Structure formats: C-alpha cells, structure tokens
C-alpha cells in the first residue's frame, strides 16, 4: 500500500514529473530507483515506485520530513548537468538539464536523472523547483502561514519550556537566579512603544529609569541576561551607531557615562565591558568560513569523497570554521572567569545585541548553569536569548531569499559550540548530540514559528488578521519544542541521554569516559602520528602529508594572535586540573585538536564516513544492554512492581545487534558499506594538485572525469 506524500490539508501540489531516476550516489555506478518528482508549497519530494515495506521502517523517523523530502527552505543550491558539465541554476532557464543535483542545508545531496522524463515535464519541474526554492518571496507566502491557518489545536506547545513571552516568566527567572535584588522586569515596551526590536518584557538594573529606556529606543541600556550564584550578572547592550555627528555623539556619550556610573557603584559589582564586534570574527567572516566548511561534506560521489580525503587536514583548516568555534568558546571562558572568579559584571556590546551577544550569553549559561544543560532548561534558554531576545532568524537563515548579505549561520555556530561541550562531557547534559542535530534540522521546517521570525514584534503583528484560507482569526503557530509533532515516543527517546548524571548524585569519577574517538580525524593534529605505507586520512594513512601540514599549516592554528593571557590560562589550567562536577562550572577544552568536527551532523549522509559496528553508538549500545539487564533483574527482584518497571525498560531505545549499527546512527541505519574506488597510485597523485575543492563556482565544472 503506497503512502500518500501529502501530510497537510494546506499542502498544494505545484508541479510534478514522472519517470525520474534518483541515483544512489555512493559509488558513481549510476544505480538508483525510478519514481515521481513533485514540488508542493511545502517541499520537494521523490516518490519511489517501489513503496517501502513497513519492515524497513527506521527506528528514528521524522513524521514531517521523510528521507526523500526536502522542505523548500532546506534547499541550498541547485545545479543542472549539461553534457557532463554542471551549472548553478538560479532564475530563468533557457536550456533544461539532463540531470538535477540538489544540495541541502542539512548536507544531503540528491541526484536526479531527467533523461527519461517527458520534455514538458522536465521544463515544469525544473523551473518550478528553482522558482519556489530560490527566488525571493513574501513572508506571508511561507508555508508556515498556510499550515497555521489549518493547524490542529491539540498540541502541547509549552512542554515545560519557559517561553519568556509574559512578565511572569521573567520574574520567575529573576527569582530562580536570585537576580531580583538588583534587577527588575519592566513593562515599558508594552505596545512596542520603545522599540520593535526589543521584546515586550525584559529585565534591567533597578536603578535604570523608564525615561532612560525610552530616550534612545532602548539603545545604550544594559539588559540583563543571567545572574551568577555570587551576584555578578551577565548583561548585554545595543550599541549606538558609529557614524554620528559630533553633538549627537557627545549627548550619547554623556548618556552612557551616566548609565555606567549608576551600575558601577554598590550594590552593583565592578563592570567589565566587551565589544564583541571588535573581539570576535565578523558575521561576514563566519558566513564565509561556514560556506567553505560545508562544501567539504556536500559530496556528489565516492571519487569526490576520496579526493577531499587526501587533503583533509589542509582543506579543513583552510575553512577557518574550527578556529572560529575555538575563538567563541575562548571568549565564553573569559566571560565565565570574570563572573565566577573576579565577581565582576560583564556587559556584552554589539550593534543590535542580537547575534554574537546571543551566542556568548547562551554559551556562558550552558557552562555555568546546570539547569541550561537539561532539555527544558536549554529550550528555555533558546527562547530567552534567541527567540524572544530578537535574533533575526528570518534574515540570518535567508528563509525568504531576500538578501545574501544578511545571511550568517549564527545559531548553527552556537549549536556547534554546545556540541563541543556535549561530546567532551556527556554525563553533564540531559540531551544528546542527536537532539542538537534534529534541532539544527528544524531551522528549515516551516511549520514551526520558532525559527521563522526576526523578532517578537514581527511574530505578534503577523499572528493576528486574516489567514490565507479566508477564515479570520489568529494563526495557530506551533513551537518546535513540542517534539511529538516530529517524532513518536520511540524516536524521541534518542533525544534524551540515558547516561545523564542526575543532580542528586553527581558522579565525579566518570570524567575519563567522556573521550569518544571517531575514525576520521575530526580535529587538526598537534603531534605527528606514526607513518603508514598507505595514504589518506580516513584509513589512518598518514604519510608525507602529515609532515607538510605540521610544518606549514598547523603553526598558525596553535600560535594564534589571541593566545590566552596569563590570568585566563591560570583559570583554565586550574579548572582542568580538578575533577569535573557535572552540575557545576564546565569549561571546554579548546587547545588545537580538542575542537572537533560535529561528525553526526556533517558526515551522516556520506556512506564512506561510517564505521559499521563502531564509534560512540556501539559503546552506547553495550551500556544500554547492561542497563536493560539491570532493569530486568530489578523486575525479578520486585514482582510487585513488575508492570511499572517493565514499562521503564522500553523507555530506553533498544539497540540490539550493535555490530550492524553505523557510527552515525540514528541517521545512517544499516547503509551499504561503500568501497574505496580502486584507483592507480598515479591517479591519487593527480588528486593532490592545487585544485580548490572547497569552492563551487557558478561556472561550468567538467564532471566527465569523475562520473564514468
């Protein structure tokens, strides 16, 4: 029985094409499946003619987006192949391609052959896909609004997550962090009379007057993020524009001086200011680095994969992405040192205080506040600092394709940094790396409002009014935090860490178990490894390339210009010399190879990158087997409670036959093992030339060499 591809009443079929061949791209052999390619106002979907049987249903399945579905917002770039050459497709097309390659923002790559499809259908489907996924659109044309006008009204939106859209939520947070002695939640922005960029409610020092808040639309006002146990607070401020005439500049300087004087005397701690626009990479640098970095994982075929593998370290380092992660983590440690050791308030300053301020303030709270390492605590943190805090998700993710200049993966940068902490200290987090991966995927699912507005004001003004199906009344937007919309209970179990160290019994002896190694070197090396007769890093073939990299490239990675100061280094080394309290302060390791590539997110669709029966998941499977055995013994010992306890046994996902699981489980299940192509040594030497594999131009690229 075929499953219908329509999930929603509000989903409309826009165009379709039959007899489309979807390649399995792992070995370049042109094997694949035949089916229908469709485009709706929500997604692009490939409908396989051989409907999958329920026996093959994956354990971890998304109810909204299937494995052959691409939401329109998830499409990154589309290439057409003409006579073995590929060209970027953007606007109007004069000629239609024989093959379509779709690169996705979640790093999937789809290869569709259109040679056997009717010409009229090719024209319709190609121009339809390009138009609906790549051209600028109006906000109200997002599927978000179509879905919200017909959304079911029975989902549990809150789900223990604090939304920070009421005054009460802010007061509760002040009380939780004991910040209510020196700080107050204000209603000054009700009706958005201060600024449309600020949330309805926020927190400021008690001594700041309403008049001051109103004077410059909230600019120059220290806004509270979080209070440390010792009373020191983390604050953020929206800076004044740099280009101003002298008289305006003098007035603003006098205003700021007054504010600083007020919050620098008792009961407030000393104040340290940090202008993030000068102490961290620019958004443009972050965007450039990530654009280069993601190209390493958008692999068309096996030959491409092994070509990048030969130059893996140098390609990885040249992107600068891991170095940006290291700098951001280092900045968060500096802020933590001021708060924790120096008992100093820290004021983060940025032009709008909605980009890097969000990254640093969130990271500091994850490192210093164990509540932020629980699932509901982390979700509440994202609501507070990002969603209500006014991060411009719509612009930064470029959901409307309005301006590439505004695009920057700021939220992804945060998730990459949090992942470093999760993989270094697994027992400290109630959630898993799988949780972070599906959260990153949810950025592109336009049925949740969470990541599709620039501010609370923009959401509020678009919530009321007439919906698209002419029913009047407010839209019913869903929040991403209701995971039951995307996953059934069995799949949701993968988001929870079974080895989380519960607060009543923090176990300090587990620190050593937090070092999981992946097969591919996912960080840049500090020391030479033993040479081998083979070559290429994936199979630990570390020949002369290692020497080149260590000699020429890694030097600048280690000896960065922003090398930690003595005070910082002392704080960092002192903390790392003691046992870890999983519910206390957590400092990430940030030296050289300690910063790793988030393997699950970036390598999950590449069969060559999988270890069958290996990696973290194999270890986790053994531990879960033991836990299951212990629980079974508990059942036998306590027959009276057997039903209740046996219910618990199944709350842990059953990972039997761990030898067959991929290291990138649960995204890569039991995929076919890919074989390294048997190329002569001369070909591998050819692959080491200076072609820049990181750049993908709009120009034609000759594919004939790699597609035979």
UniProtKB/TrEMBL annotation:
Organism of this sequence: Strix occidentalis caurina
CDD domains (alphabetical): PTP-MTMR12
GO CC annotations on file: membrane; sarcomere; sarcoplasmic reticulum
Location(s) in or outside the cell: Cytoplasm, Myofibril, Sarcomere; Sarcoplasmic reticulum
Protein name: Myotubularin-related protein 12
GO biological process terms held by the UniProt record: phosphatidylinositol dephosphorylation
Residue ranges occupied by any Myotubularin phosphatase domain in the UniProt entry: 164-602
Family per similarity comment: Belongs to the protein-tyrosine phosphatase family. Non-receptor class myotubularin subfamily.
InterPro entries, per database record: MTMR12-like_C, MTMR12_PTP, Myotubularin, Myotubularin-like_Pase_dom, PH-like_dom_sf, Prot-tyrosine_phosphatase-like
Keywords, comma-separated and alphabetical: Cytoplasm, Sarcoplasmic reticulum
């Amino acid at each position: 029985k075929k499953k219908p591809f329509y999930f929603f009443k509000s989903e409309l079929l826009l165009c379709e094409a039959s007899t489309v061949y979807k390649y399995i791209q792992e070995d370049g052999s042109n094997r694949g499946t035949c089916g229908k390619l469709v485009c709706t106002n929500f997604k692009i979907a490939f409908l396989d003619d051989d409907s999958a049987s329920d026996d093959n249903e994956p354990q971890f399945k998304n109810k909204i987006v299937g494995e052959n579905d691409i939401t329109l917002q998830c499409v990154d770039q589309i290439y057409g192949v003409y006579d073995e050459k590929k060209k970027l497709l953007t606007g109007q097309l004069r000629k239609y391609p024989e093959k379509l390659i779709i690169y996705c923002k979640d790093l999937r790559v789809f290869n569709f052959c259109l040679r056997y499809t009717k010409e009229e259908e090719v024209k319709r489907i190609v121009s339809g896909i390009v138009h609906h996924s790549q051209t600028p659109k109006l906000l109200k044309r997002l599927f978000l609004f179509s879905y919200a006008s017909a959304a079911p009204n029975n989902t549990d939106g809150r789900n223990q997550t604090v939304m920070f859209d009421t005054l009460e939520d802010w007061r509760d947070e002040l009380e939780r962090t004991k910040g209510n002695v020196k700080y107050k939640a204000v209603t000054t922005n009700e009706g958005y009379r201060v600024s449309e960029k600020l949330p309805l409610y926020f927190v400021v020092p008690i001594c700041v007057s309403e008049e001051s808040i109103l004077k410059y639309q909230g600019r120059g006002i220290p806004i509270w993020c979080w209070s440390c146990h010792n009373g020191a607070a983390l604050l953020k401020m929206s800076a004044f524009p740099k280009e101003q005439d002298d008289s305006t500049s003098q007035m603003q300087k006098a205003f700021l001086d007054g504010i600083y004087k007020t919050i620098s005397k008792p009961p407030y701690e000393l104040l340290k200011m940090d202008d993030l626009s000068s102490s961290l990479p620019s958004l443009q640098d972050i965007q450039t680095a990530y654009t280069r970095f993601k190209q390493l994982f958008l692999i068309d075929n096996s030959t491409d994969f092994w070509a990048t593998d030969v130059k893996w370290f140098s390609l990885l380092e040249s992107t600068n992405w891991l170095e940006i992660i290291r700098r951001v983590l280092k900045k968060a440690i500096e802020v933590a040192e001021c708060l924790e050791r120096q008992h100093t308030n820290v004021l983060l300053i940025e032009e709008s205080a909605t980009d890097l301020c969000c990254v640093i303030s969130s990271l500091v709270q994850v490192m210093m506040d164990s509540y932020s390492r629980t699932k509901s605590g982390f979700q509440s943190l994202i609501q507070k600092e990002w969603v209500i805090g006014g991060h411009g998700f719509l612009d930064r993710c470029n959901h409307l394709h309005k301006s590439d200049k505004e695009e920057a993966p700021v939220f992804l940068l945060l998730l990459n940094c949090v992942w470093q902490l999760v993989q270094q200290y697994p027992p400290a987090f109630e959630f898993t790396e799988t949780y972070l991966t599906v959260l990153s995927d949810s950025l592109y699912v336009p049925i949740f409002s969470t990541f599709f507005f620039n501010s609370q004001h923009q959401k509020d003004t678009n919530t009321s009014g007439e919906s698209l199906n002419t029913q009047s009344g407010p839209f019913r937007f869903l929040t991403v935090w209701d995971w039951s919309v995307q996953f059934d209970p069995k799949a949701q179990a993968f988001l929870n860490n079974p080895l989380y160290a519960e607060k009543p019994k923090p176990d300090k002896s587990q620190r050593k178990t937090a070092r999981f190694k992946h097969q591919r070197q996912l960080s840049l090396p500090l020391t030479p490894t033993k040479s081998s007769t083979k070559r290429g890093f994936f199979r630990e073939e570390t020949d002369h390339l290692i020497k080149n990299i260590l000699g020429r490239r890694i030097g600048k990675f280690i000896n960065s210009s922003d090398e930690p100061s003595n005070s910082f280094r002392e704080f960092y080394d002192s903390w790392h010399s003691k046992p870890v309290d999983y519910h206390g302060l957590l400092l990430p390791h940030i030296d050289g190879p300690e910063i790793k590539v988030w393997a699950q997110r970036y390598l999950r669709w590449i069969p060559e990158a999988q270890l069958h029966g290996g990696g973290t998941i194999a270890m986790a499977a053994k531990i879960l087997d033991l836990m299951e055995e212990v629980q079974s013994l508990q059942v036998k010992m306590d027959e009276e409670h057997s039903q209740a306890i046996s219910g618990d046994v199944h709350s842990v996902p059953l990972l039997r036959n761990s030898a067959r699981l991929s290291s990138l489980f649960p995204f890569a299940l039991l995929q076919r093992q890919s074989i390294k192509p048997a190329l002569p040594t001369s070909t591998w030497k050819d692959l080491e030339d200076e072609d820049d594999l990181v750049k993908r131009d709009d120009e034609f690229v000759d594919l004939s060499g790699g597609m035979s």
